[in-house]
Write a structure and sequence with these properties.
single chain, alpha+beta, outer membrane lipoprotein receptor (LolB), chain A, 45% strand, DUF6503 family protein, DUF6503
Length: 251
């Protein structure tokens, strides 16, 4: 009888220890990145169009190049942000960019590529990730991951805050929200739709919502969304996506 009680207690303790394990924010994000494409992000050339502009990214072993091309009837403006900084070409010729515009142009290019490649950028060195809780949204279970940025390496908008809803079983980023300070500040909530996989990388489009209550905590936006208290303001849709996986350099 004593032996039976001992083994019953031992089994219960193992059961509790296994099922009470709580994943960290880092572990959850790592799985989300792996699900979305993993190492393919780091060895690929990606093309897509967004709101009439052409975008291209190339990443190879830490060397990156993010591009945006805007074409009109009389002019083609081609911006390239890389490890070396910003380069702008107008009609194929390199031009000098005023110091006051370098950050604005670079941020504009970076921002589109950042959102298009999510959740890839969440493992950047300046990113701080916290597990803010769990929830059920539209009947599906989610982890809520809060993201903030260090001032050093966090860019000009390092004070912005983000929240990501990562599915607890699929590890997909299905919703996200952010609070920003530029242009008077604002809050946005995005609902993912039209997910598709192109050459091993998962992409999604988003319906973009806002709230005028700027004091709202990002963690409350899922409830406001489900109760119809957010207003849709735009759609974030990527078109003509092409992915080329780069081969490893020969020895």
């Amino acid at each position: 009888m004593v032996r039976f009680l001992f083994f019953s207690f031992f089994f219960v303790m193992i059961h509790v220890s296994v099922f009470s394990y709580q994943q960290t924010a880092q572990e959850i994000v790592d799985k989300a990145i792996e699900k979305a494409g993993g190492t393919v992000f780091d060895q690929s050339v990606i093309h897509f169009s967004f709101r009439g502009k052409q975008y291209r990214s190339e990443r190879r072993k830490g060397v990156y190049q993010l591009e945006r091309k805007v074409v009109s009837d009389t002019k083609e403006v081609h911006d390239v942000v890389s490890n070396k900084g910003l380069l702008r070409r107008v009609n194929g010729c390199a031009v000098t960019v005023a110091d006051s515009l370098v950050t604005k142009i670079s941020d504009g290019v970076n921002s589109v590529h950042y959102f298009a490649m999510l959740p890839y950028g969440l493992n950047a060195a300046a990113v701080n990730k916290t597990l803010a809780g769990e929830t059920v949204l539209k009947g599906e279970p989610y982890y809520k991951i809060k993201v903030t940025f260090d001032q050093e390496g966090g860019g000009t908008d390092y004070e912005d805050e983000f929240m990501y809803w990562i599915h607890k079983e699929r590890y997909t980023v299905d919703y996200l929200a952010y609070k920003y300070a530029v242009n008077g500040g604002g809050i946005r909530f995005r609902e993912g739709y039209n997910p598709r996989v192109v050459s091993g990388i998962r992409f999604a489009d988003y319906k973009n919502y806002k709230t005028e209550a700027l004091h709202t905590d990002l963690s409350q936006l899922d409830t406001l969304f489900e109760t119809g208290k957010l207003k849709q303001v735009s759609v974030i849709a990527l078109e003509d996506i092409h992915v080329y996986v780069l081969k490893e350099d020969c020895c």
